[in-house]
Amino acid sequence: MTMLGTDEDADGGPIVGPYHLHVDGRLHAVTDAWLGDSLLTVLRDRLGVTSVKDGCEQGRCGSCSVLLDGRLVASCVTLAADAADARVTTLAGLPVDGPAPAVQAAFLCHGAVQCGFCTPGFVVAVTDLLTRHPAAGEDEVREALAGNICRCTGYGRIVAAVRAVQADLAAQADLAAQADLAVQADLAVQADLAAPTGEAAQP
Amino acid sequence: MTGTAAVMHRPSTVGEAVRLLAQAGDARLLAGGTDLVPALRAGTSRTRVIVALRRVVELRARGVGADTLTVGAGVTYAELADWTAAPGLAATARAVGSAQVRNAGTVGGALGSANPRGDLLTFLTAAGADVLTCSAGGDRRGTPLDAFVADPPARRRGELVTAVRLPRPAGPQVFLKIGGRQAAYPTLVSCALVVDEAAGQVRCAVGGVAPVPLRAAAAEGFAAAEIDWAAPGRDPAVRAAVARRFGTLVATAARGAPTQLPAGPRDPAAYRWHAAGVLAERALARCLAAGGSR
Fold first, then answer.
1. Which of B36, B50, B100 lies at the smallest CB-CB distance from A65?
2. Distance (Å) of CA A80 to CA A42, A164, B66, B194
3. Which of B3, B9, B101 sits opposite A147 (nearest CB)?
4. Average pLDDT for consecutive 10-residue bins of chain B (294 residues)?
5. Do B165 and B129 contact (CB within 8 A), yes or no?
6. Which B residues, 89 through 108, put their C-beta within 8 Å of a C-beta on chain A?
7. pTM of this prediction?
8. Which CATH architecture has domain B173-290?
9. What secondary structure letter does DSSP report for A200?
10. Is B101's CB within 8 Å of A12's CB?
11. Would A162 be classed as within a structural domain?
């Protein structure tokens, strides 16, 4: 069990001792954890990933939200050893070319961060929502975030931040589509100019 | 913190999983982890051996047959939530927990834990589901859900739930529940109605009152006698009266359940009986509004 860097955890055999976790693109050796430890415990206490917050340990508050192979889960009710052949994504591992940076900026700008304890879990959950369903309506946003509890903001500012990111993304997509159309129109004109005209073009 | 768990097996087939279960004796099955992981942490589950089922592909299948739907034990609530072939099951799955819980929790986990307040258990009881299991040696069998949940877990040792099978929808299906914030707290009381229009039958199950979901036979008999699902009638006053009487009969059935779940400070028994009646009344009203349309 000491072949660090190989993928022996992915072969489906039993796990009795140390194993590896693939977190935010890096492979970590987990050497001193109890086999029954949750992913939350291992991330925080063994690997030092403290953006994953320890709120309720019951799967109720969402402050420990991570992506497991791209699915949003509560890491406190995920067995760490069972994630040995999966990809774990925490706040720090969210792709920088996705919605995460805009979500973080909007949370600050809209006062959606007060004590900040719930914020990393919210950013993971919002990013997951906007990646899968960028045009979600307000009810869908509230439903998608129902598993993340915030005791400070009353959620209004959080929802406002999400709606602002959606509006920005939609405007960007519109601009991109218009630019695309303009380019296509240019190309069509050029193609027209280049094409042989009249009867000369007929075989 | 440390506990007793010392080995985790990761089978990829049902055969391998039941062989490991038989060998270990006291092994605990792990699916989404939403029940087992907190139990391991709290020390209420003191197993040495965990058999993790996430890699068993067979358990993840779901299918539509001529008369039945089959849902693999490894299918998550999130996967059920948008299943158009099973609107009642989908609505129930959407009513469970949060996005995080629905992405992890599975059908098999709901049956394995058999939480008496479990939303899926209530719906599957109303639907008349069978539980398909496999035990060492490859013995496969189907057990009606009510018999399955009445059987003490010790008697089911060594058995793996592979799937549930339920009749294809044949009329309106409604699931309603009451409790604290859905994402954070378990259901207090739930009610599922499954209508078979051609058979003129309404099956009703109530969760959160008795140790297993409760069928309300008198209410079901009343609905069968009173309602013609081919032409449920357009008079709203008549419909409302039928729904009210149905709700009263369900509340009476809840009160009459021989074994009651222990009452908590926020859910005295009388409140749960009342809630069961209110939910049943609303659920039947919705079925009547949706019925006769096929």
1. B100
2. 7, 35, 41, 39
3. B101
4. 82 95 89 94 89 96 96 97 95 96 96 84 97 90 92 78 97 95 88 96 96 95 94 86 98 96 88 97 96 59
5. yes
6. 97-101, 103-104
7. 0.91
8. 2-Layer Sandwich (3.30)
9. G
10. no
11. yes
